[in-house]
Design a protein that fits this description.
Helix content is about 35%, strand content about 20%. The chain is globular and about 65 Å long.
């Protein structure tokens, strides 16, 4: 097997790492950043890819910094997929450097700009949380197929068949989401979460979405912001707020306590998966299971009608 050596900066020194080319007949060595991307590539690539995701359950991609083992994995990979739209902002310099020597693809950067929401933090950038709308997330299928096809030209029919099947699953997930979320009384369709990760969800399913923090979890919510939201919760009789698996629940607890001090009881509606999926090996540890969990949890807590174990009767069953 032919190998190329490349030099990458690591701290104050240089790391010399062999970059492997795909062996004939062997699964493609793929590295992905978030769990959502890993799951997408596994569904499209199937048996012809071996996918390593570097960000596991509960990991916040906004603040994640690549480790030495991440660098080794990515420089040895046949192709690296990351999200883009400044989600993995701490890793951008590394991706730019790696792209000079190896295939690197930002899948969300290929989405039609007219479907993207502007960042409320950075006027010239976009909200990266596109996976919260299954039909926008489906637009990342094309860039994955195209990239894998360029490396494995003889696998196009296989990739296209898997892509079509997965796209149909996302369409069915979207139908279920609309069904249960429209069962929530309109006056209750207010989603309050830890940070602004659910704007695409709100736009797709007609929910008002309010994040205590901004789009990035690196922003801090001040006392004034907490007080402002406590007043909103009381004035609009909000019944539930939601924590996120990858963000501290400190601010959400402050909202509940603040509302209680004003004589209004608001419950914790449940934990949502925002920037990371559920436990590895579980249904919630897949993209479809993640969205099924979120949609079902939100609808149930806000007065909607939902199946006990969600769309596919798999929620809460463990691994």
């Amino acid at each position: 097997m032919k190998r190329r050596d490349i030099l990458l900066g690591l701290g104050a020194g240089l790391l010399v790492v062999p970059l492997r080319a795909a062996a004939v007949g062997a699964p493609l060595n793929v590295v992905a950043t978030t769990g959502m991307i890993s799951d997408l590539i596994s569904n499209i690539g199937g048996s012809i890819v071996d996918v390593l995701g570097i960000m596991g359950p509960g990991v916040d991609p906004h603040s994640y910094r690549h480790t030495r083992s991440d660098i080794l994995a990515m420089t040895r990979a046949d192709v690296v997929f990351y999200h883009g739209l400044d989600l993995e902002i701490q890793m951008m310099e590394f991706f730019q450097q790696l792209s000079q020597k190896s295939p690197v693809k930002a899948i969300a950067n290929a989405i039609d700009r007219s479907k993207l929401l502007s960042s409320v933090v950075k006027g010239n950038s976009f909200d990266p949380h596109v996976w919260m709308d299954p039909m926008i997330w489906a637009e990342t299928i094309g860039p994955v197929v195209e990239t894998l096809h360029q490396i494995m030209p003889d696998k196009l029919n296989f990739l296209m068949s898997n892509a079509d099947n997965y796209r149909k699953k996302l369409q069915a997930l979207d139908v279920y989401s609309k069904q249960v979320l429209t069962s929530v009384p309109r006056q209750s369709a207010i989603l309050i979460t830890a940070h602004d990760a659910f704007a695409y969800f709100g736009a797709a399913y007609d929910f008002e979405v309010i994040g205590v923090q901004g789009i990035s979890t690196n922003s801090e919510a001040g006392l004034y912001r907490i007080g402002e939201l406590v007043d909103l919760i009381v004035d609009r009789n909000v019944s539930a707020v939601f924590v996120e698996s990858s963000v501290s629940d400190r601010n959400m607890r402050a909202l509940i306590e603040g509302a209680a001090a004003k004589g209004h009881a608001v419950s914790l509606g449940g934990e949502l998966f925002s920037d990371a999926m559920g436990p590895a090996g579980s249904y919630e540890g897949t993209y479809i299971g993640m969205i099924d969990h979120n949609v079902t949890t939100i609808a149930r807590a806000l007065g909607g009608t939902v199946p006990e174990r969600g769309w596919q009767n798999k929620l809460g069953l463990g691994t």
